Write a sequence for this structure.
């Protein structure tokens, strides 16, 4: 699967504590997101999609790359590939799946 970019309608949110939930609002570019899917939000960390209503997605923070309280601009969201017993953020070349 190619990486998917949230277009100019990117959501901005305040990074929560690990285990907390944030909402992002997007456009049809994220039609590949599914409930229970893990995604990497660039600048934020690894999240799990826990609900979807229209173009609003509720994401639970699993692993943070930014401190809580930091503003995150969710412009790039990547699917997280789970392979074997280990988990990798991206597949493909240069760490990102194009």
């Amino acid at each position: 699967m190619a990486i998917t970019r949230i277009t100019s309608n990117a959501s901005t949110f305040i990074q929560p504590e690990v285990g907390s939930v944030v909402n992002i609002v997007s456009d049809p570019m994220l039609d590949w997101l599914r409930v229970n899917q893990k995604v990497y939000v660039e600048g934020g960390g690894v999240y799990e999609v826990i609900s979807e209503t229209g173009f609003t997605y509720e994401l639970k923070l699993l692993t943070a790359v930014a401190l809580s309280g930091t503003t995150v601009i969710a412009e790039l969201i990547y699917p997280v590939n789970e392979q074997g017993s280990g988990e990798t953020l991206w597949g493909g070349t240069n760490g990102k799946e194009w």
User: Anything to note?
Assistant: The chain has one domain: 4-82. The chain has no helices and ten strands. The two ends are 7 Å apart (CA to CA). Residues 1-8, 84-98 have pLDDT under 50 and may be disordered.
